[in-house]
């Protein structure tokens, strides 16, 4: 097993930015995933990439807790603008990640810490990436 690669975001990004992002940035969703050890639902702000007709979740900071939890659970919940969607996730192979990372940086690279984090972790293997598969979003649960 390889060592976990994770770049912890700055305090302000974790504590303030992540909580405010989903409220004020229309490109940000709230991801909820069951904890791999506790089974309790954990929620974080994420940017969902739409690319070539598919949707993806990328972990700019490396093996984040949400990526480890999603890998273990295989499913989660996305909330955006009051719409809640249950989904399943399939991890994308390392070989398929470079064009997704490029598209993610083009779309979200100006968001605080995104480009800097990818620059500090340039290896695509360091960025867990998941393709979202699911039925149509369900409104207001």
Element order: H for helix, E for strand: HEEEHEEHHEE
Helix content: 25-40%
Give the amount of beta strand, in percent: 25-35%
Shape: globular
Give Rg in angstroms: 14 Å
pLDDT under 50 segments (min length 5)? 136-141
Adjacency order of strands in the biggest sheet = 1-2-3-6-5-4
Overall strand count: 7
Tell me the major beta sheet: 6 strands, antiparallel, barrel
What's the rounded overall pLDDT mean? Answer: 85
N-to-C terminal Cα separation, in Å?
A: 39 Å
Backbone structural class? alpha+beta
Annotation field: number of helices: 4
Please, could you describe this protein's structure?
It is a single chain. The protein is α+β, with helices and mostly antiparallel strands and 141 residues long. A 6-stranded antiparallel barrel has the order 1-2-3-6-5-4. The C terminus is likely disordered.
Main features:
4 helices, alpha+beta, 6-stranded antiparallel beta barrel, 7 strands, 141 residues
Give the helix/strand layout.
Blueprint: H1 11-24, E1 28-34, E2 41-51, E3 54-58, H2 65-73, E4 75-80, E5 83-91, H3 97-108, H4 114-120, E6 129-133, E7 138-139
Antiparallel strand pairs: 1-2, 1-4, 2-3, 3-6, 4-5, 5-6, 5-7
